[in-house]
Amino acid sequence: MISVVAPIYNEVDTLAELHRRLSSTLQPLGPYEVVLVDDGSSDGSWNRLLELAASDNHLRLVRLSRNFGHQAALSAGLDAARGDAVVVIDGDLQDPPEVIPDLVAAWRDGYDVVYAVRNEREGETWARVASASVFYRLLQRITSTPIPRNAGDFRLLSRRAVDALAQMPERARFLRGMTSWIGFRQTGIAYDRDARYAGASKYSLPRQLGLALDAISSFSTTPIKAVTALGFALVVFCMAVLGWTLYVRFFTADSVQGWTSVIAVVLLLGGVQLLSLGVIGQYVARIFDETKQRPLYLVDEVVDGSAASNGEPQRRG
Ligand code: UDP
Ligand code: MG
User: Fold this and answer.
1) Does the C-beta of 107 come closer than 6 Å to ligand 1?
2) Which of 5, 8, 9, 209 to mutate to test ligand 1, by most ligand atoms within 8 A of the CB atom?
3) pTM for this prediction
């Protein structure tokens, strides 16, 4: 069986079209289920989902108790999916469902992770494409896990890949990096990314930065190493300055001068120390988050779709 997982956060206008396109793509592929995770929507998405589930027993709905964020919603969907292969797709139709048969074909050829690589990104701002490009380049440089560039969360995972992800307990989830990390046989397939079907992106700039921070600090200790190197260089620099001041004090006459250089050194050191503390603090904060061992998400209810025309969808609290 093939499972398709999509996170849904305030996508009410997209749901019917998403359901239609997913169903028509998946039907020829054999048995399938569609797991839609409502990530605390407040626009009536849940009721629309219930309507869809009332007449389609391929649907499985998971409603989280509040908005936990995209990556947590994906984790909830992966945990609820029961297929032998699980396709993760955005709920806004930016990832065309018609690519799924290609992903499935690669899986049938023996690949465990088949990620879809974006050729073109339609309907996205120039700034968004540029910042994504800079980010993926930077990430590639400073991590030892190769994270494919231009691949979002649209991908297929085999059962053992899904189980491997479920074993990774970290709270700060950057699933793109985590699926690269697990290894097995991985491959990419190119596709053109569409514009959103309806609504606006839920990734504001702060949220994008948050994801970038999660990605960097979960997959790289380079910032901490850089801080250490910087500290070391500054110690050498300060020793030199100290030598110079001693020389001026004991071997020349103009020892009262130097206010500017003193202030400059104080400011420089103060700034670097604060920056370094900030970077180290980032990692400490993450250690704190991880040690709390909170669940990634809480499920409010799970509804399995039903094909019976009069039947209410089956609810499980
Ligand atoms: N999403 C979610 N929870 C959130 C934010 C987004 O489940 O807190 C879903 C959203 O409904 C969409 C997918 O994650 O299906 C990708 O979000 P979006 O399209 O806003 O991101 P972008 O494509 O702009 O990166
Ligand atoms: Mg989107």
Assistant:
1) no
2) 9
3) 0.71
